[in-house]
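Exercise: predict the structure of this protein bound to pyridoxal-5'-phosphate.
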Amino acid sequence: MSYIETDLIHAGKTFNASRAVVPPIYQTATYFAEANPEDYLKTATEPRHPYFYHRHGNPVSSQTAELLAKLEGTEAALLTATGMAAISTAVLSVVKAGDHVVAQQSHYSAASILLKELLPQFGVEVSFFDQTDNTSLDAVIRPNTSLIYLETPSNPNLAITDLAYVGASARSRGITTICDNTFASPINQRPADFDIDIVVHSATKYLGGHSDLTAGVICGSQEAVNLAWKKLLSLGGALAPFDAWLLLRGLRTLSLRVKQINANALALAEWFQVHPLIKRVLYCGLPSHPQHQLAKQQMNGFTGMLCIEVDGKDEQEQFVRAQTVLNHLQVFANAASLGEVESLAVHPASMWGLHHSPEQKLKAGINDGMLRISVGIEHIEDLITDFEQGLAQI
Ligand SMILES: *Cc1c(COP(=O)(O)O)cnc(C)c1O
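Solution:
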């Protein structure tokens, strides 16, 4: 099958050995051994075998992983218990003591901690580059660089990394690349099409899409995914059987959801752009986004993620006003996470302000009046009306 919409419904079916149209949940830790010891040895050692022991594999995980590999255009995929389990397992399957890693200045917060604190504890040095400036990447690469770690669009400031440039540059030097594709989803962007080696996701977000599970996925070549699987056996982050089943169920509607979310987000961003109380809108689908051209080159749609900056005479007033708007929203839920069917909004300065100095906030692209919005699949008129009445409170 060649179209994503069809793959979403049918890919991976061969792993469903039952006659049930929807696969049963294999809520079991272990499986009966084959009688023949040689067969059992094969089962025990084959990567991701679905019928040995749960940390090794599970039939529904195999079905879901095959679908995700199809979506990302890679040979294989491995499910994990959370997005961070996917990121840490993938990174640790590539680097070893003495290696050098290059990463962006801005990443998902727990990934930043992995890069800035955990890797250096194990003798891996990490350098950071400005993802909006390709020459800054070349400046930090060293002979022992083994990994370039990317995220685009990135959290929280929706900056775009030039995937084709990084992919080609890394391939020519034999450096492995990993890209966190959570914000885009494979409907909007496929990093493997730009020679990125490994694609990771927090499947908690768009892939699952219903705020009812945490999961992660690592997509790549058979070899890369098998190496990650070996690390996962030791790190232990296998995805629970029921959550793999929920993820498969959520994925059925991924394309429908993402298309609706893209359309809602663009309409909302355009509405914000002419609102007198909004100082700035950051949405990579708007021509006013500094990297809109690059986004158009590598993305098929521009996601449901946008940031607005509420206007005010100074930072203090912006901070209070952003909180006032947020507190009065009735359709948008004030909750962390993103990429779900329901619209969500957060005030990054309240969430992270206490942990960040003013310089760190500036560097991370957070300012006091900023609201980060994850648009859902509600009717656009209700989303606009909600912000209209929220902004009327200030
Ligand atoms: C949420 C998120 C993660 C972490 O995923 P969990 O499922 O919460 O572990 C990683 N990267 C990005 C971009 C995210 O949004």
